[in-house]
Specification:
308 residues; alpha/beta; Rossmann fold; globular; hydrolase activity; AB_hydrolase_fold; BD-FAE-like_dom
Length: 308
Amino acid sequence: MKSRFKLASFILMFVLVLSGCQGQSRVPPSTTVSELTTVRPEKLGTVDRDVVFGTGGPIALRMDVYYPKAATGPVPAIIYVHGGGWVGGDKNEIPPGYTGELTSRGYLVASINYRLAPTYKFPAPIEDVKCAVRFLRAKATDYGIDPARIGAMGASAGGHLVSLLGVTAGVNQFEGTGGWQDQSSKVKAVVDPYGPEDLNALFAGAPPFATAAIFGGSDSKTLDKYSPVSYVAAGNPPFLIIQGDQDVVVPPAQSQGFYDRLIAAKVPATLVVVKNAGHSFAPAGGAISPSLPEIYKIVADFFDVNLK
């Protein structure tokens, strides 16, 4: 109960701060495998900032594109979704350890912004994440990526969003109208570090207005609607879940329960528990194990197995 109220306080802080301000994939029909290109030589190892990938109501949605350091053909792509309690955060918060490890292994990484509460409530964030996947698939030849090899990862609230992305392929109510509607938003693999998965369990006892400010309601039905555990089914993509054993913001039970549900549905899933780690893998009582560099390699190894 103590951890739930701590999370509620974390969310309320952001709501109060922002309340006064605005706060298996298919190849596209127009693209055949033989038409796919690779990353242009001058782009290798560079970053394109603030690329507009769609629209969210009146605002332009933007991503930063980190190009692989080397490429000899169409490359796999990974969407990164930042955390921040669904009310804060930015695309530039992607850890350099992830971009460095992944681009050195030949991945294009797209770190995205999405609409934030309380100005924009759900389903706006998941619509924006799906729009980003559709954009990359539509622009596969421009970026030199393979549209059949797109994965996703995110942290905390971003972990929730990529988990929801992974288990809701074909759920039209989450697609939105941000652009590229002729493309699929399905991804082939998902990495979820410490993301909330069962919102009813997480927010039990939280003030109703706090959840309503983010999800548009505080009732059980609404929270179930935006909980990844509600959509787990055979055919979901492989998941890698990484969770700190001392996390009091998103308790380990969230990751464990999601992992158990995936395994029961025969979805390939791996759960890595990081010892002595709080939220965001902050040390809690000693050095974390595995270490951050080891976690970066675990993530890249998972994508190597599932996207290459």
